[in-house]
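Why should sequence recovery work at all? Because a backbone constrains its sequence more than one might expect. Tight turns favour small or flexible residues, buried strands favour hydrophobic ones, and helices have their own preferences. The token representation captures these environments compactly. In the example below, the structure is given first.
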């Protein structure tokens, strides 16, 4: 961020690369992403303390010289297998961006899909989780009231 509090332009050409296998090295990562443009910087993150100190954290950032190069790399590399794991590649500025479902019925389904497929950010937003829980409770209450009504009608017959 700049001093005025707005997002820096660097985020437009900076990629987040996640779901990295721990066997992938910095050199291998650079070799995979080099064909898509000029790499300006690379941040390969390591555990700095604790029992995993010195081991890779499973994600990295790569910054290209232009936004177009970053977008091309994102399109080509997202979902590509590396050491048997699909890479998660997105612009660093998209880190917290989530598509919010429009209908309440889709909230539960979309959150479930995100969790299973690892798409989006791998996490749903707090408000989406709350909405999903509310919808689940509502459907359970509706099912429960239908069951009670059916039992009452069975008892009357």
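From this structural description, the recovered sequence reads:
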């Amino acid at each position: 961020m700049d001093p005025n509090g707005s997002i820096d332009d660097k985020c437009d050409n900076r990629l987040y690369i996640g779901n990295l296998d721990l066997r992938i090295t910095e050199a291998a990562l650079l070799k995979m992403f080099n064909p898509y443009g000029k790499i300006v910087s690379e941040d390969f993150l390591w555990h700095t303390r604790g029992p995993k100190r010195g081991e890779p954290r499973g994600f990295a950032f790569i910054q290209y010289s232009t936004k177009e190069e970053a977008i091309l790399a994102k399109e080509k590399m997202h979902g590509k297998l590396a050491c048997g794991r699909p890479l998660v590649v997105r612009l660093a500025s998209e880190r917290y961006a989530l598509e919010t479902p429009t209908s309440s019925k889709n909230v539960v389904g979309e959150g479930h899909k995100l969790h299973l497929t690892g798409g989006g950010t791998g996490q749903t937003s707090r408000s989406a989780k709350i909405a999903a829980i509310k919808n689940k409770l509502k459907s359970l209450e509706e099912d429960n009231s239908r069951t009670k009504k059916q039992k009452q009608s069975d008892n009357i017959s």
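A few observations help interpret the result. The chain has four helices and six strands.
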